[in-house]
Design a protein that fits this description.
This protein is an alpha/beta fold. The chain has one domain: 3-Layer(aba) Sandwich (Rossmann fold), CATH 3.40.50.2300. The chain is built from five helices and five strands, in the order βαβαβαβαβα. It holds the Pfam family Response_reg.
């Protein structure tokens, strides 16, 4: 089964590396957005199976984007994995309390990103 993943990240390089990795390694269909507000629009249009969401973005950050996605019936049930460079315990606890599916850390290993996501979401690879 081909999965569709939405990557929301303001960093062009991160989006590109993650997209190429998920397409090549896992064979997933990847759509992307460069901001929280654009990501919300893309989530409604693309109906992804999961969202990989950057925490630190200008304007609407990742946690705020996640909370906005939760308010929309079409996007509320899409599992969200946060991608963050913040590894402090207090930040991790705050992110976990949001109700996201998982938290992955930057820098990520492109070769294991699909497996990490599959494991976090309970998907067979």
């Amino acid at each position: 089964m081909q999965r569709r993943i939405l990557i929301i990240d303001d960093d062009d390089d991160i989006r590109e590396v993650a997209a190429l990795t998920l397409e090549m390694v896992a064979g997933w269909d990847v759509v992307s957005a460069n901001s929280g507000s654009n990501g919300i629009e893309r989530a409604q249009e693309a109906s992804p199976d999961a969202i990989l969401l950057d925490v630190m973005m200008p304007g609407m950050d990742g946690p705020t984007t996640f909370q906005e996605l939760q308010k929309i019936p079409e996007t509320a049930k899409i599992p969200v994995i946060l991608l963050t460079a913040k590894v402090q315990g207090a930040d991790q606890k705050r992110f976990a309390e949001l109700g996201v599916a998982a938290i992955l850390f930057k820098p990520f290993d492109p070769l294991t990103l699909a497996k990490q996501m599959s494991d976090a979401l309970g998907w067979q690879q």
